[in-house]
Amino acid sequence: MDFDVLVIGAGPAGMAAATRAAELGARTAVVERARLGGTCVNSGCVPTRVLAKTARLYREVRTARDYGIVVHEPAVDWQQLIRRVRTTVDRVLDAKGYGEAMQQLDITLLKGEASFTSPHEVSIDGRPVSAASVILCVGGSARRLPIPGTEHAVLPSDVLDLPELPDSVAIIGGGHTGAQLATIFDALGSRVTLLDLAPRILTTEDHDVSTAVTDGFRSRGVTVDVGIGGVDGIKKHDDGALEIRWQGTGGAQSARVGAVIMAAGWPANISGLGLEAAGVATARGAIPVDNYLRSNVPHVFVAGDANGTSMLVQAAVFEGETAAENAVLGAHRTTPHHLLPEGGFTDPDYAGVGLTEAMARERDAQCAVVVVPYGSVERPIIDDREQGFLKLVTDRHRELILGAHAVGENAVEVIQAVASAMAAGTDVATLARVKFAYPTYSSIIGHAARKAVRGAGKDSW
Ligand SMILES: NC(=O)c1ccc[n+]([C@@H]2O[C@H](COP(=O)([O-])OP(=O)(O)OC[C@H]3O[C@@H](n4cnc5c(N)ncnc54)[C@H](O)[C@@H]3O)[C@@H](O)[C@H]2O)c1
Predict the structure, then answer these.
(1) What is the ipTM of this complex?
(2) 416 CA distance to ligand 1 centroid (A)?
């Protein structure tokens, strides 16, 4: 065999897998057909976060006069914004220093497109390579809906290729991606229509979180149409405007927009991988794995978006490391997915960790839930960011934290702090005694924990 471990894909999962495998002494290679870093750095989280900062800046500039700062009406320079995003991506890639790290660990980088030719052999643009174990970290791609005129829509990764900021945008899909894009375009001044087949946006979040984000969108004039019957098609008019037609809650609807963005799902990048030559099975657009991240072929592991389990960078890194340890040392390790904090940079932000209220009530209807509104805490009042709440879900004895969910400024950082407490096994009474610096957003955690200890309920918002 040429290598002990061959990692296919150099995104967060692949880099974590290769690093861990090499640290454990395995002869390791990584195959990548494009830039190192994967979707997250190059066209996903990093660009989105720069755009989210832009949206925040724009909002702040608009309110600057309230604080006695005289500014002129701001306007967006789309080309400058795109330059800024691209420069930031390059800076993040530099900081990550993938090349140097790979050199230090003696990881071989194989540039090209990988495709299995047998269970242990892969062809990389025609060049054969063999490995004892293969870790597939091939990620996913946005789904293009099979509807008439689909070619007129852009995918989230192509948003930066729009020649100018559209005056209006229709976004199909209100998952994390669609919700974040809705915030960005709304903040920059585009008229936004957000459509989803599901009865609510952000379906994986706590119900109150998705309601609050929806209310926030609608209060700023974003059209949110959920529970739609489907998108019928997109037509391009002679003047370049697009017409999108859908079966809305109130019957057939249409809108004339400058751009349509499809954020309607994220299947794994499995086509062209030659999985049949290795006997690797797929299901519902992903490669299913067991608890040890093994596909149905025991020496082929799958980490990150490609296994369809949890399509988050923070999960991908854990999975990459775990798959590498299992490939090199034997399959004994699993990943603790229940403690993955996640969230999105909408306006207001949202985030969560652990069980949602609905999941907890399904297990025990008597579980306790407390909610503290942002408007009752000093820092959000000082910053004029009173919209939002922190919800703490505990067991019925109010001892164990089962989950935490927040909407509001810095919600992701707030939830991260609760996640650290949960990971350390902190009980509610201990959390209630933690001293939080004043005046901070995270002090809301102390309020919630004390409220839980006092026995107050969700009704006393
Ligand atoms: N901040 C974050 O953590 C973040 C950001 C972006 C993406 N992600 C992850 O990446 C993955 C992909 O995210 P995503 O938002 O692109 O996809 P998604 O699958 O999470 O959401 C897609 C949404 O599109 C809707 N939809 C599907 N078909 C539709 C149709 N024909 N018409 C209207 N609506 C339709 C679905 O109901 C769903 O709400 C997810 O797992 C997500 O968790 C995370």
Answers:
(1) 0.96
(2) 22
